[in-house]
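User: Okay, second chain of the day. Same drill as before: sequence in, structure tokens out.
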Amino acid sequence: MKRRFGDRKDGYRLRKADPLFRLIPYIMKDRNDAQVFFEDRVYLEETDRLIRKLRKEGHKVGFLHIVIASIIRTMSQKPKINRFVVGKKTYARSNISFSLAVKKDMTEDSEETTIKVTFEPTDTIYEVIEKMNDEISKNKKLGDENNTDVAAKVIAFLPGFLINWTFNLIRFLDNHGKLPRFLTALSPFHSSVFITDLGSLGINGVHHHIYNLGTNTLFISFGTKTKEQFTDDNGVLKTRKAMDLKVVADERVVDGFYFATALKLAKNIMAHPYQLLTPPDNVVVDDEI
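Assistant: Same drill. Structure tokens below.
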């Protein structure tokens, strides 16, 4: 899509949105003013079946890959959840990207780093597995540092007043669409979704705040699997595995009904993920750009 005056390097200005949504960023100025909390449960019968199938094919895959692939597929059909608000203006993001924190080793003293992976709306579960695993493998090597780590160490070395000045400058440039591309590329706060998998720590998901810095609109968290008892149509008591998803969203980008339908679609894809083996039939473009 060709860029026009008022667009950013990482997004397209909305020009056809409801006037109310032009006013909302002036009413709720910060992202955490506009946080809304969603929670839903995904049943894992077909999900676990697909994960076992992919593992037999030699793929290193888990529920994290299914969630990411499902959100990508949802954004390909519900692109308005991939918007962001910055500088009191709303934009349609020009890519789909996920940020997550990665421990280099599962110990308390191990280093932690943050990675960001960019995807195409047509990506299947196979592309998601490959891109995610490549990036995680590169960043799990002990002693290695990515560009985000280096930038954080350089800024942290400064005295407090210069750290404060640096982040004020970053916010100012970001609000005016002038933040250099290399900074938005390495910043985990400039992505579609921040996601965390707490299952490896043995705890449940949490409702995690979204950050005022940057452009993240969604924070998704999940943890350990749970078992739920239910009665089938014949009155027989059975048990099924499930996963609880916790989602925090910036409500300024679109109305709650749209968010709810997008979450319902994402949940359906996670529960019936075989559709992720092939690309979507079509990709929907945000019609308010």
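The chain has a mean pLDDT of 91.

User: Thanks, on to the next one.
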